[in-house]
Specification:
Keywords: Transferase. This is 3-deoxy-7-phosphoheptulonate synthase. It comes from Ktedonobacter robiniae. This protein is an alpha/beta fold. It has a single domain, classed as TIM Barrel (Alpha-Beta Barrel). The protein contains nine helices and ten strands. An eight-stranded parallel beta barrel has the order 3-4-5-6-7-8-9-10, surrounded by seven helices. Strand 5, helix 3 and strand 6 form a beta-alpha-beta unit. Helix 1 runs parallel beside helix 9 and helix 8 packs parallel to helix 9. The longest helix has 17 residues. It is globular, with a radius of gyration of 17 Å. The protein starts with 13 loop residues before the first strand and ends with a helix. Phosphoenolpyruvate binds next to loops.
Length: 271
């Protein structure tokens, strides 16, 4: 299979342009652990710019932010749509960061690709095969989140859909799975990280924000993911989590992200 290490023994390295790094290119799947951070959802220009500036200054090189949001409740905030994408590109211009944002439907792939540097496929869409085919026909890097009830085999087969259409730039993202435990929103499957590394050459990212649903343990799980060999982290940061329109409980405060970054660098260097 195209995603398997047997087929492709070397690690896949995905290169993303980002003006904020000296070389102008961020490598995902290379030596460094790549920090992706920002708000769960783009809410206002001030919220996004404040978060982007703070995470950039702390060392993040890729800005996350949802413009098209999947929402468990139909009454939840569904995102700003194209307006949100425009704000993300404004932040990219201002801070030199690359952008990762979710695409929800095959019909939106062309539009979101005009703005994003990495297209995120969310947990709810991991087995949306029409969407996987559509992003596979393009050449934008894809971050494929693990379905909340998906086995590693199902997840890698979903990646296979994208690869089989000709797009080789696929990274995986462990974001927690559904278990009987209610103390966390999801159970962060740390064991998936070294296992995926054995099974596949694709880079793997960890999302401890969705993976736990609780900002008090996002830091610990970030460090655990780095120690387990992850290629990058995707972390939600909000200037004022109490006021967040979505997922405030799992969003780090800016100071928490600033505290976490040097610890992350230390663990990465030790590993
Ligand atoms: C997100 O990262 O914004 C998101 C909705 O994540 P997930 O698909 O993992 O729930």
């Amino acid at each position: 299979k195209l995603a398997s290490r047997e087929f492709h023994p070397e690690n896949t390295v995905i290169e993303i342009s980002a003006a904020c790094v000296d070389s102008g290119t961020v490598k995902i799947g290379g030596e460094d652990v790549v920090m992706m951070a920002g708000p769960c959802t783009v809410e206002t220009e001030a919220q996004l710019m404040t978060a982007a500036q703070a995470v950039r200054e702390a060392g993040a090189v890729i800005l996350r932010g949802g413009a098209f949001k999947p929402s468990t409740s139909p009454y939840g905030f569904r995102g700003m749509g194209e307006e949100g994408l425009k704000l993300l590109t404004k932040a990219r211009d201002e801070f030199g960061m690359a952008i990762v944002t979710e695409v929800l439907t095959p019909a939106d792939v062309a539009l979101v690709s005009e703005y994003a540097d990495i297209l995120q496929i969310g947990t709810r869409n991991m087995q949306n095969y029409m969407l996987l085919d559509e992003v596979g026909r393009g050449s934008k890097p894809i971050m494929l989140k693990r379905g909340m009830s998906a086995t590693l085999e199902e997840w890698l087969l979903a990646a296979e859909y994208i690869l089989a259409q000709g797009n080789p730039h696929v990274m995986l993202c462990e974001r927690g799975i559904r278990t009987f435990e209610k103390a966390t929103r999801n159970t962060m499957d740390i064991s998936a990280i070294p296992l995926v590394k054995k099974l596949s050459h694709l880079p793997i990212i960890a999302d401890p924000s969705q993976g736990t649903g609780r900002r008090d343990i996002v830091g610990a799980m970030s460090l655990a993911a780095i120690a387990s060999g992850v290629d990058g982290l995707l972390i939600e940061v909000h200037p004022n989590p109490e006021e967040a329109l979505k997922d405030g409980a799992q969003s780090l405060r800016i100071e928490q992200f600033q505290d976490l970054m040097p610890q992350a660098v230390m663990v990465a260097q030790a590993c």
